[in-house]
């Protein structure tokens, strides 16, 4: 054999030796297939990676052996298309071992051609990337969880803004209902508020799809109220159902609502469909723990908002309520009378004013003292409030002067209202130190929109002039309209 041929054979043998070393000792799985993608040979790494020996896969399409139920069908289709077109392709794909365990690989399929350009083989290399995929999934879960937390923080901040912007308790309840349904959409809920004697909690609002919540619950029926802190049922190994819960086994939260250090109510959140037979336990507990954290924040925000509304209401009441009688004061009357007058003129509705003055009030102060005078005024205010009909707002303008703002009252209805309170006040019986006070009576006069003018000042003046006439004609009477002879008498 010529020396050159001997050298060429030696070099070829060396290359085959090195290739054999790589193929047998590479950590990447290698499959050699024919042009029809039927497996011809696999390296030891393939068997180690998949559990399939060469006899298990020879003559079979590797994809049909390795791909399984959760393998992405679109990725498999991309491989099929590339192989038919004899193009190299590289993809990440989910495979399954012989024992059924799923694992991810970085798969590269390369067509091989001979010296003449004829397609002779496919070489497929697979690198296990399961750990990398797990890290990617974990990172994606973390990103998703962070995005969810960010969304929750934004919703909580928006909810807090709306809660603190509420001007009244009714408006606050509306915000709570909308906010809780948005923040915890998979739960139903209700808000209970203590009644005045603090004996029961009454249903204020509810939200969600449950048909109905109890209209009231007793404080001792709830573990949260009895223990003085929020209570979650469905997350602990030892727990007991509250007596106010009708459907045992369903997870729920009970969260006290506290204002100015005093428990004023209870927020009850129910997870219908989250029973033991529903969601898988780990999913169920994960959702409940997340919602528990949100619920605690919401309960705190609602408590602060309730305290804020109460303080605002107290300050507002002080500015528009007469401190002695509890009636609306002059400021409130002037603001609301102007507004009601404008709406009455716009909508062609009736409106009347009734001026009321306590007869001989000075004698109560002079003979019995100012404390007795205050007692008389408070009792008159009580009767005006008690006997005020629909759309009637009793106000104290000052001293012994009162006025009733009567919306949707014509002359006849206003006269009946005035007579009703006049008679009721004449029946008041008060005693001081065991001695009966003289009879308490009032005089009243009417001012009517349209009949007496369209400006508030004109209607008030007409009511006052009618009142003065009632005084001049003997007191303890109602004058419904003016006459040419008007005498302004003393009180």
UniProtKB/TrEMBL annotation:
Pfam families: GGDEF, PAS_9. GO terms for biological process: cell adhesion involved in single-species biofilm formation; negative regulation of bacterial-type flagellum-dependent cell motility. Its EC number is 2.7.7.65. It is an enzyme of class 2 (transferase). GO terms for cellular component: plasma membrane. Residues 349-483 form the GGDEF domain. It comes from the Bacteria. Residues 14-60 form the PAS domain. This is diguanylate cyclase. GO terms for molecular function: diguanylate cyclase activity. It comes from Roseinatronobacter monicus. It catalyses: 2 GTP = 3',3'-c-di-GMP + 2 diphosphate. Residues 87-141 form the PAC domain. Gene3D superfamilies: 3.30.70.270, PAS domain (3.30.450.20).
């Amino acid at each position: 054999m010529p020396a050159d041929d001997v050298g060429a054979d030696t070099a070829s043998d060396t290359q085959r030796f090195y290739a054999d070393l790589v193929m047998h000792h590479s950590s990447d799985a290698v499959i050699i297939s024919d042009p029809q993608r039927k497996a011809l040979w696999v390296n030891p790494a393939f068997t180690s990676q998949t559990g399939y020996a060469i006899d298990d896969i020879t003559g079979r399409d590797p994809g049909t052996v390795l791909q399984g139920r959760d393998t992405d069908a679109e990725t498999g289709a991309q491989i099929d298309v590339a192989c038919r077109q004899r193009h190299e392709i590289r993809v990440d794909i989910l495979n399954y071992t012989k024992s059924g365990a799923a694992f991810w690989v970085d798969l590269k399929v390369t067509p091989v051609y001979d010296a003449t350009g004829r397609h002779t083989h496919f070489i497929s290399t697979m690198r296990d990337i399961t750990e990398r995929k797990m890290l990617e999934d974990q990172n994606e879960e973390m990103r998703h969880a962070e995005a969810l937390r960010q969304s929750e923080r934004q919703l909580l901040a928006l909810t807090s803004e709306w809660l603190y912007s509420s001007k009244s308790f009714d408006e606050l309840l509306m915000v709570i209902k909308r906010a809780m349904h948005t923040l915890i959409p998979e739960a139903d809920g209700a808000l209970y508020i203590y009644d005045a004697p603090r004996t029961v909690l009454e249903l204020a609002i509810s939200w969600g799809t449950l048909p109905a919540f109890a209209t009231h619950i007793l404080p001792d029926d709830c573990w949260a109220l009895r223990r003085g802190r929020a209570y979650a049922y469905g997350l602990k190994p030892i727990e007991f159902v509250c007596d106010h819960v009708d459907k045992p086994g369903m997870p729920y939260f009970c969260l006290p609502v506290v204002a100015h250090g005093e428990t004023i109510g209870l927020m009850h959140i129910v997870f219908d469909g989250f029973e033991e037979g529903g969601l898988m336990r780990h999913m169920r507990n994960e959702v409940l723990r997340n919602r528990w954290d949100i619920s605690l924040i919401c309960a705190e925000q609602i408590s602060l908002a309730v305290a804020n509304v109460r303080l605002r209401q107290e300050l507002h009441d002080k500015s528009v309520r007469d401190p002695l009688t509890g009636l609306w004061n002059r400021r409130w009357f002037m603001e609301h009378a102007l507004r009601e007058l404008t709406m009455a003129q716009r909508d062609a509705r009736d409106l009347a004013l009734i001026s009321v003055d306590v007869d001989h009030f000075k004698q109560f102060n002079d003979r019995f003292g100012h404390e007795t005078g205050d007692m008389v005024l408070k009792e008159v205010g009580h009767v005006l409030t008690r006997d005020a009909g629909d759309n009637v707002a009793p106000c104290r303008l000052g001293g012994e002067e009162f006025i009733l703002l009567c919306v949707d009252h014509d002359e006849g209805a206003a006269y009946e209202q005035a007579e009703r309170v006049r008679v009721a006040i004449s029946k008041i019986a008060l005693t001081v130190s065991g001695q009966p006070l003289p009879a308490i009576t009032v005089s009243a006069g009417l001012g009517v929109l349209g009949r007496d003018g369209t400006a508030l000042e004109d209607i008030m003046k007409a009511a006052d002039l009618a009142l003065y006439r009632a005084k001049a004609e003997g007191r303890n009477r109602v004058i419904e309209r003016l006459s040419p002879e008007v005498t302004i008498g003393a009180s």
